[in-house]
Amino acid sequence: MSTPPRPAPSTPPHPAPPAADPGFVPASLGRRFGALVIDWVLCLLVSNFFADPVRDGWAPVVVLIFEYGFFLGLFAQTPGMYVTRIRCLSWTDGGRIGLVRALLRGLLLTLVVPALIMDGHRRGLHDRLTGSVVTPAPRT
Fold first, then answer.
1. SS3 sequence, the chain?
2. CA dihedral sign of residues 93, 108, 66, 99
3. What is the CA radius of gyration of the chain?
4. Whole-angstrom Cα distance, residue 130 to residue 115?
5. Which candidate, 88, 85, 56, places its Cα nearest to that of 71?
6. What is the separation of C-alpha 39 from the centre of its chain, rounded to a whole number of angstroms?
7. What is the full per-residue pLDDT of the chain (140 aa) written as tens digits?
């Protein structure tokens, strides 16, 4: 007696990269702002270990740049983004942006003005220059 053939394992299709997805919906401004506030508070707390954030205004800014570089480069989310369920991905392929682009994105974000100049996909100038986009994160 022969056994029936086993069906091939199905793998879920990979979602289209944001640039190629006509139905792409970016993360809301409220979630993005909430994530930034959470990350900024964390930067103030961390910078308090080696400087006075009130007197040394550069300290939390430097921590923010490195926080973005580390967390976005390796995990596609900062702690604030994790809490607000958003993530930062590559615009062209939907993967992580890597350490160098994440550091550059953090540096550009500290200039504030690039973040205020957004396109129709809510990509600020800092996102466009680094080839990134902020998207809703799926629930895990």
1. CCCCCCCCCCCCCCCCCHHHCCCCCCCCHHHHHHHHHHHHHHHHHHHCCCCCCCCCCHHHHHHHHHHHHHHHHHHCCCHHHHHHCEEEEECCCCCCCHHHHHHHHHHHHHCCHHHHCECCCCCEHHHHHHCEEEEECCCC
2. positive
3. 19
4. 12
5. 88
6. 12
7. 566 666 555 544 556 788 888 888 999 999 999 999 999 999 999 999 998 878 888 999 999 999 999 999 999 999 999 999 999 999 999 999 999 999 999 999 888 777 778 888 889 899 999 999 999 998 76
**Whole-structure pTM value:** 0.83
CA 128 to the chain's CA centroid: 13
Q: Which two tokens stand for residue 10?
A: 């199905």
Token pair 């607000």 is at which residue?
Answer: 84
Which residues are CB-contacts of 16 (< 8 A; sequence separation ≥ 6)?
94
Which residues sit opposite 90 in a β-bridge? Answer: 132
CA distance 35 to 86: 8
